[in-house]
Amino acid sequence: MTEPHRESSAARPTEDAVEGPAAEPSPDPGHFRHWRRWLVVGALLVAAGLLLFFVWTSFLPRWWAQTISRQTGGTFSGGVGWGLILGFLFTLVPLLIMGVALFRNWKYLGVRIALAVLAILLAVPNLITLSVSVAPGRANEIARTTMDVNAPWFRGATGIGAAIAGAVAIVLWILGYIRRSRGREVRRLRAELDAAD
Known about the structure:
Blueprint: H1 29-58, H2 60-72, H3 76-103, H4 109-122, H5 124-134, H6 138-150, H7 154-196
């Protein structure tokens, strides 16, 4: 009498048998392209920043001091007058543009960025004057001496004009906020009246 056929435990695969190593997924080429693009952008930004730093610290202070010296004619009245005008205009206009960029509801973020860049560019004259006044460096020292001799009181008058412009910008921001708040309140009351009718 034959015994029932038994499968050997060696021949039958067990459920808890260890599987072989799974094949690793191949790297996504799009992922590498994404990082490579950001690396290129980062390298370009670093190079642009270094170039701007070199131009700002070596060329702009002397050029700005010579330009202001020619503009003021080396007189005290010219230094004070041009300092007040430039300090006021190149502070008030950038602050107003920055206020429009921040406080308005823009549909696209690019509009805010473009307005912010424009505001910074318009503030460059006062930023150069500020750099000449407070920043260390041989170029700034030469520019300070040039301005003190050929454009007396220009730097001080620029600071006064910038302070006045800052105060005016704050007042205009507050008035604009009040006007927008009143406009929203009027629209809300009109909507309630229309709903009541």
